[in-house]
Amino acid sequence: MSYANRKQMSSNRTAAIIIVALIHVALGYALVTGLAYNVLKKAAEDLKTFDVEEEPPPPEEPPPPPDQPQTSRVLGARFELRRARNRVGRFTYTLVIS
Fold this sequence. Notes:
The chain is of the alpha+beta class and about 100 residues long. Helices cover about 35% and strands about 20% of the residues. The chain contains one helix and three strands; from the N terminus they run αβββ. The chain has one helix at about 10-45, and strands spanning about 70-75, 75-85, 90-95. It has a three-stranded antiparallel sheet, with no helix packed on it. Strand 1 and strand 2 form a beta hairpin. The N and C termini lie far apart (about 135 Å). The mean pLDDT is about 80.
């Protein structure tokens, strides 16, 4: 008797396919309803969270005072140092004696 000529499925084979299908359905149901939920619930409990607070920015430095000529008096003479920016962008200093 050749296996290629068999047209019918035996009752043992049909029963085995039905049992395997039922086992797959039961495992899928267990994962969807209970097992996966407990794993996620436990993972959520173990997760530790905390708030990150940013440090306040440092206070701004006050702007430098406007340029004022520096003066001094020596024996009645007045000395004044003037600062000016030239065309190139560098500062030049001039000493004025009055």
